[in-house]
Write a structure and sequence with these properties.
Chain A: It catalyses: 2 pyruvate + H(+) = (2S)-2-acetolactate + CO2. Chain A: Residues 5-80 form the ACT domain. The structure holds two protein chains of two kinds. Chain A is of the alpha+beta class. Helix content of chain A is 31%, strand content 41%. The longest helix of chain A is centred in the N-terminal third of the chain and has 11 residues, at 16-26. Chain A starts with a strand and ends with a helix. Chain B folds into three domains: 2-172, Thiamin diphosphate (ThDP)-binding fold, Pyr/PP domains (Rossmann fold); 187-348, Rossmann fold (3-Layer(aba) Sandwich); 363-536, Rossmann fold (3-Layer(aba) Sandwich), CATH 3.40.50.970. The chains are: A alpha+beta, B alpha/beta.
Chain lengths: 88, 570
């Protein structure tokens, strides 16, 4: 299993959080942590989530599946923070 | 800006969205919407007998017309009965909008009578779901729901509306047009694809339902004929390329033709358009088309490289992709030896069947005769199981959208309500439901709707007295231990002819080969009510060829134990 960090901008719409969480559940994604914070814009929130995927499963697929959701305004896979530290 | 009720606003918004027919059933929470519906001259309401029928009818309508299908149900059980059609439409990318009543806003979350959280229930099986809490939002929400259902990769959208929102006074402001962006296929990927096509030796067009949804059959035919490349059409794409065309090798997959399966397996270039490398097509993924490079075009980026890595990924509508490829491909590949190989397979392994030893009708013969006598201008629907595979194999399809079935979810009982919806959308075409005796017993109540509403579908029950596909697997993989697959329909329980009459239809029965053509012709002559034909067929007939689950496509069997691609040096 590999650890991945995702950062999403989510519309403040009813059911938006549920839709993201259900996608993790139905696509077999293990969630380690999830935080949701308001932004300066009132209509969107920022979600940071750390997930575990089976080795060999590319997070790109998950990013694309999240992008399909109407209430997800943007989603990016953040590079592995441990690797960033090595590079720094 | 007019002062109206939320319910009137809903009906006007539906009219403005182009809705001409709704399949539904009223109930407590949706009741306010049914009052202004009575006065609408633009919308026909078809009163179904079960909400599942409404959902599949909306899907059949959408697939027959290319427009958005609409179904309506009340809160609670009405809404939960839509779950199967929503999941079905999600898997097969069918644009439908489901409108459900909900309990009053103040009652939500109190376990009120007929309350179900349908928005949450539908999360993994819809593109999106709305719950309207402000009646002023109704026109914009309906417009957006239609745009979402039809735009991009099509799919189902739910709109849940509390009863007091429908009853409230509001204003009607026509919604602004909803902008749906359309991705242009990347020029560099199109160039790379054209280069690979020109230099390929064993290319094949692997065509999926996306080509049908995109309305790109003509563009496909142009490119196929310019390049001379063979074509296979998946279950969802039957009709996207004419069966009568000499470049067509048939359907690939678990019950595909030997030439179609071999074309994929031996290929050096898969040109996959609007298809998702489903497990029923690929068999064991690691053994699928092992030497092929892959061009994969799909409108949904999440499908590309999901199951099989694409060497050339192209995100775009199949019509745009094919138009671009037609402009970019300048040189046809040399395919003489490839065609010699494929033609050899075609000669040696045509689709065929044996007549049952017990003297009963061969189901394949019945379906083949329906296809021949009714012809390619008709629309055919199917349920799920053996009859569905035979309907895919033995009816010749010449037009996109002429075969409507449940491919992804595999929903038994799909055929009758889908035929009802299709017939409402295209009243001038003959619509034939090819159904099984098991499937028919799940949704035949909609024949009452058809009889009363002047929807003259034909239903051919391929009655083998069993849950045939399950029985086939029990025969092949469970040592012939037939656990709970006998349905007693050969003992006339139910008597399908009597049942048809009771449902307001004409009922016919056919048990002899000599009667098959005559009974089909007699059914075609009945125009004032639906017709049900009970074709009593042998119970031991099996669907072949077959790639057993858990094996690679090279192990395709033409009959039990005979594996031509695996055993022979071709």
């Amino acid at each position: 299993m590999n650890r991945h960090e995702l950062s999403l901008v989510l519309r403040n719409a009813p059911g938006a959080l549920a839709r993201v969480v259900v996608l993790f559940s139905s696509r077999g994604v293990d969630v380690e942590s999830l935080s949701l914070d308001p932004t300066e814009r009132g209509d969107v929130s920022r979600m940071d989530v750390v997930v575990w995927l089976p080795a060999g499963r590319n997070p790109d697929q998950l990013v694309k599946q999240l992008s399909r959701l109407v209430d997800v305004k943007s989603v990016v896979a953040v590079a592995d923070p441990a690797r960033n530290q090595i590079g720094a | 800006m007019d002062t109206v009720t939320g319910a009137s606003s809903l009906v006007r918004a539906l009219e403005d969205a182009g809705c001409e027919v709704i399949f539904g059933i009223p109930g407590g929470a949706i009741l306010p919407a049914y009052d202004p519906l009575l006065d609408s001259v633009k919308i026909r309401h078809v009163l179904v007998r079960h909400e599942q029928g409404a959902g599949h009818a909306a899907s059949g309508y959408a697939q027959a017309t290319g427009r958005v299908g609409v179904c309506v149900a009340t809160s609670g059980p009405g809404a939960t009965n839509l779950v199967t059609p929503l999941a079905d439409a999600y898997m097969d990318s069918v644009p439908i909008v489901a409108i459900t009543g909900q309990v009053n806003r103040s009652m939500i979350g109190t376990d009120a009578f007929q309350e179900a959280d349908i928005r949450s229930i539908s999360l993994p099986i819809t593109k999106h779901a709305f719950q309207v809490t402000d009646p002023a939002d109704i026109p914009a929400v309906i417009a957006e729901a239609f745009a979402l259902a039809a735009g991009g990769r099509p799919g189902p959208v739910l709109v849940d509306i509390p009863k007091d929102v429908l009853a409230a006074t509001t204003t009607y402001t026509p919604a602004a047009p909803v902008a749906i962006s359309r991705i242009t296929p990347a020029a560099n990927e199109i160039r790379r694809a054209a280069g690979l096509i020109a230099s390929s030796r064993r290319p094949v067009f692997y065509i999926g339902g996306g080509v049908v949804r995109a309305g790109a059959a003509a563009e496909l035919r142009t490119l196929a004929e310019r390049t001379g490349i063979p074509v296979v059409t998946t279950l969802m794409a039957r009709g996207a390329f004419p069966d009568s065309h000499r470049q067509h090798l048939g359907m690939p997959g678990m019950h595909g033709t030997v030439p179609a399966v071999a074309a994929l397996q031996q290929s050096d270039l898969l040109i996959a358009l609007g298809t998702r490398f489903d497990d029923r097509v690929t068999g064991v993924l690691d053994l699928f088309a092992p030497n092929a490079a892959v061009i994969h075009a799909d409108i949904d980026p999440a499908e590309i490289s999901k199951n099989r890595k694409a060497d050339v990924p192209i995100v775009g509508d199949c019509k745009d992709v094919l138009v671009s490829l037609n402009a970019a491909v300048r040189r046809a590949p040399v395919l003489t030896s490839w065609w010699a190989y494929l033609d050899g397979l075609r000669d040696r392994f045509p689709l065929g069947y044996d007549w049952p030893a017990d003297g009963k009708l061969a189901p394949q013969h019945v379906i083949e005769r329906i296809g021949t006598l009714v012809g390619p201008e008709a629309i055919y629907t199917a349920g799920v199981g053996q009859h569905q595979m035979w309907a895919a194999q033995f009816v010749g399809y010449e037009r996109p959208g002429s075969f409507i079935n449940s491919g992804g979810l595999g929903t038994m009982g799909f055929a009758v309500p889908a035929a009802m919806g299709a017939q409402c959308g295209v009243p001038d075409r003959a619509v034939w439901a090819i159904d099984g005796d098991g499937c028919f017993q799940m949704t035949n109540q909609e024949l009452v709707t058809c009889a009363l509403d002047g929807i003259p579908i034909k239903v051919a029950i391929i009655n083998n007295g069993n849950l045939g596909m399950v029985r086939q697997w029990q025969n092949l993989f469970y040592r012939g231990r037939y656990s709970n697959t006998g349905l007693s329909t050969h003992d006339r329980v139910p008597d399908f002819v009597a049942l048809a009459e009771a449902l307001g239809c004409a009922g016919l029965r056919c048990t002899e080969k000599s009667e098959v053509d005559d009974v089909i012709m007699r059914a075609m002559e009945v125009r004032d009510r639906p017709v049900v034909i009970d074709f009593v067929v042998g119970e031991d007939a099996q669907v072949w060829p077959m790639v057993a689950a858990g094996t690679g496509n090279d192990e395709i069997m033409t009959v039990r134990g005979i594996k031509p691609l695996f055993d022979e040096d071709l």
